[in-house]
Design goal:
294 residues; alpha/beta; two-stranded antiparallel ribbon; 38% helix; 14% strand; binds ribose-5-phosphate
């Protein structure tokens, strides 16, 4: 039993207004505390941005180049990521549970690269996402794809489950092979995902990206896409951030880089410090050469 608290000399700081700060992420102010807390494990509250390391490619294409050994190639990069996006198989088998940042769990799956990719279903129960203590759940949405409605329904079911448990839903706009990756398409896909309840959206960078970001009321991050030369990838990330993206969800341009550790640190400069692409590339070269001479 605590002792009786009957002191008269309490200090209620009556001259200090009670804070009523809006949450730092666009479109997220009306979310519940737990969900905001999880978002703060993805987006850095200081910069308001994120460097998500995406390594979930194996869920439809097997041991992707650079991901042959996640323990060897990826675990050393974890200290430089704000968040890790992966499957539950890799999480349980290979990622140290001491990883203290947000995990974004791949929740959809089904077809391999040998089949129609849009024919995905939800592949993980919400209970397992809760058990794994994830910050967000990722689901592919194939707007314009053969199984468009099914993939949108996958997302809306996750949104419902996520809101019930305070877990964010990341809608990943997947662009079919024959579709044009232009701003008109990205605006449609991102806005649909936001309207249907996604907590945040991942899409691809394109010309006029500022119109894609402006018309999406929730945070938007860009995928890296296929491997580019490092300077080019840093330029793309810089342009996306300056046009309104709140981060990157980058995979191949990091883990397929000639020096992944140097590349992820250079990407951080662009995302969190608004570094210019040329200077970020110089930073990449410096880190790369330091490693060589060590
Ligand atoms: C692809 O479907 C996965 O969701 C990847 O996480 C995503 O494409 C980001 O990886 P990358 O930067 O290699 O495109």
């Amino acid at each position: 039993m605590p002792e009786k608290d009957d002191k008269d000399a309490k200090n209620f700081h009556v001259d200090v207004p009670t804070p009523n700060e809006p949450f730092f992420l666009r479109g997220s102010n009306s979310l519940d505390w737990g969900l905001k807390n999880r978002l703060a494990k993805i987006f850095n509250p200081q910069s308001g941005r994120t460097v998500m390391l995406a390594i979930d490619h194996g869920y439809f294409q097997g041991p992707t180049t650079g991901l042959e050994r996640v323990d060897v190639n990826i675990v050393p990069l974890l200290p430089y990521s704000d968040t890790l996006m992966c499957t539950r198989g890799i999480l349980r088998s290979t990622i140290p549970p001491s990883y203290g940042k947000g995990v974004v769990l791949r929740m959809s799956g089904g077809p391999s690269i040998l089949k129609e990719l849009s024919n995905e279903r939800l592949a993980v129960d919400i209970e397992d996402a809760v058990r794994l203590n994830v910050a967000a759940m990722a689901v592919q949405v194939f707007v314009g794809g053969e199984y468009e409605t099914q993939s949108v329904h996958n997302m809306t079911r996750l949104v419902d489950a996520g809101l019930k448990h305070g877990i964010a839903t990341l809608a990943v706009t997947a662009v079919g092979r024959d579709m044009v990756r232009d701003a008109k398409y990205m605006r449609l896909a991102c806005r649909m995902c936001a309207e249907l309840g996604a907590t945040y959206v991942k899409t691809y960078y394109c010309d006029d990206f500022d119109t894609v970001a402006a018309s999406c009321p929730v945070p938007i991050v860009i995928a890296g896409g296929k491997k580019l030369e490092e300077r080019e990838a840093l330029t793309m990330a810089h342009n996306a951030i300056q046009a309104g993206a709140l981060g990157v969800d980058m995979g191949r341009n990091i883990f397929q880089s000639e020096n992944p550790q140097a590349m992820i640190q250079a990407v951080r400069k662009v995302v969190h410090e608004n570094e210019q692409p040329d200077r970020a590339y110089d930073y990449f070269l410096t880190l790369k050469n330091e490693k060589k001479s060590a």
